[in-house]
Amino acid sequence: MMANGNKKPGGVGAGGSGGGTTAACWSSSSYKAILVFIVPLVVVFGLISLLSPKSSNWVFISNYYLAGPSPNTSASNLSEIGASHDDVLGLRSTVVVMDMHSSTIEEVHSDDYVQNRSASPPLAVEEATPPPLEPIINGTNDEVPMNETDANSAMDNPATRRKEYTHLGRLEGRLRRARVAIREAKFANKTHDADYIPNGPMYWNANAFQRSYLEMEKRFKVFVYEEGEPPLFHNGPCKSIYSMEGNFIHEIEVNKQFRTRNPEEAHVYFLPYSVTMLVRFVYVRDSHDFSPIRQTVRDYINIISTKYPYWNRSLAADHFTVACHDWGPETSNSDPYLRKNSIRGLCNANTSEGFNPSKDVSFPEVNLQTGDTHGFLGGPSPRLRSILAFFAGGVHGPIRPILLEHWENKDKDMRVHQYLPKGVSYYDMMKKSKFCLCPSGYEVASPRVVEAIYTGCVPVLISDHYVPPFSDVLNWKSFSVEVSVSDIPNLKNILTSISTRQYLRMQKRVIQVRKHFEVNSPPKRFDVFHMILHSIWLRRLNVRVHDDQ
Predict the structure, then answer these.
(1) pLDDT of the residue at 190
(2) Beta strand extents in 143-278 (DSSP E only)
(3) If we measure between CA atoms, which residue out of 159, 114, 94 comes closest to residue 18?
(4) Could you tell me the maximum CA-CA distance found in the chain, to the nearest angstrom?
(5) CB-CB contact of 76 with 68 (8 Å)
(6) Where are the alpha helices (DSSP H) in 341-394?
(7) In angstroms, rounded to a whole number, what is the distance separating the alpha carbons of residues 334 and 2?
(8) How confident is the model at residue 47 (pLDDT cuts 50, 70, 90)?
(9) Least confident of 74-88, 456-470, 499-513, 523-537
């Protein structure tokens, strides 16, 4: 077991009430009475200001989607997004202002974000429009130029000088420019790219996605904490249903483009523990006792928060984890900031279990039995797919029994099986089918979603409270069918009501989005590794960190 450590407290931020100025008339007697109360208060607050830490840490989180669903949107109602999200980069979005000390949360609205404000009382949270770009002094060559007068004025401002000369100030300034570039990209022409240019209704906003992806490639840096030893840390499964957990841990650790060894350059900080390995080596089988896992994670957080300042600086809001194991959400309960503030990458993206699309990342469950996708990609053209719908799988969870009750061996067009007949290939059946049914099991995620996409079969998502992978970028309604559990008896009517023309469009789009779900080693641009990173990058754009030191 790891040695215990103590988390250092963050800086104290003074709070206060905002509001308008109130006029009042004072008599001499009331003035003297007020002095009796005011003088002791001034002395007390003066002592507090002298004794308290100088730094004040704040995080501003806004729902900065490219054009995805709202935080309360699940797969079952993504269809309601429609045209309302066509303009999402210009829409007013909820901004959550988090006091990194008292954890008080207030909600306001702004077109993009709320400016960092002084932590000195009184703190007024107000509606604001995006400010003009603030140049960074002595920055890189991609920054906004300043004329001599502006530069001298900025240099004369101690607050500006202190803010912009810090690593964090420069980093946040560049993120600010990235946000502006993404917002403006919606109305600009696409940038030429020899590898891939996103296009089509599969994307909520293809222009904004391309610009965001290019900004990520240009700027994004990840610091991986080196503490911890295998098999619990820096290790994970790569040949199982949880393979994406181990695959991502491995690829980010060997990556030279996004990984930085200098934590001062990092936008996010990765906690490289594997939930699958914690379950395998720490959990006592059949004990139903999660405490050993929670304690291991707490010990790890104690170590990194004692050794480094970054966890306490943001209270985990710029830290992230990945977990494909079903117990990923449960493991994040080990620490309140890990659950409430950090970016949790989860296959089990279940909103009823606390998944928050505005800060958490849904990524796909890929069952890499052999460690790669060789032989799984591709399938025949639509005209050679004679089966309307296909499913084969075990009975677990509340949804599959309903599906099997209504459709198992009931209809020659609906090939629904618990067990496939001997000699029948699961993947061959998917390749012969127009639609592949993807019901949730005990957990909302299913590897069948990616298996369907790999084989060119239009996925049919049958689940409640599931946020599909990369929903902030991908419009799942354009290439999949979403069916509520209550509509399972009408499943065939729903599928046959889709015209041949619409099916052909959807099937073509499945082929087009497949690149975003492919696992490559080494990773290739726009593949699943980069899409997971991009989702984390988007969440980091929502977070603004500063320290007044």
Answers:
(1) 83
(2) 222-224, 268-270
(3) 114
(4) 98
(5) no
(6) none
(7) 15
(8) very low
(9) 74-88
Task: List CB contacts of 534: < 8 A, sequence separation 6 or more.
Answer: 212, 213, 216, 470, 473
8 A C-beta contact, residue 219 and residue 231:
no
Least confident of 156-165, 339-348, 363-372: 156-165
β-partners of residue 224 are: 270
Task: Name the token pair of 271.
Answer: 């906690």
- The residue whose two tokens read 């959807």 is 506
End-to-end Cα distance, the chain: 36
The number of CA neighbours under 13 Å toward the Cβ of 407 is 27
Residues with Cβ within 8 Å of residue 30, at least 6 apart in sequence: none
Query: How many H helices and E strands in the chain?
Result: 17, 14
Helices (H), 255-399: 275-281, 291-307, 310-314, 328-331, 336-340
Six token digits for residue 87 = 């303009």
Residue where the block lists tokens 């002791």: 40
Q: How far apart are CA 506 and CA 79, in angstroms?
A: 15
List the structure tokens of 480: 């999949």
pTM for the model stands at 0.76
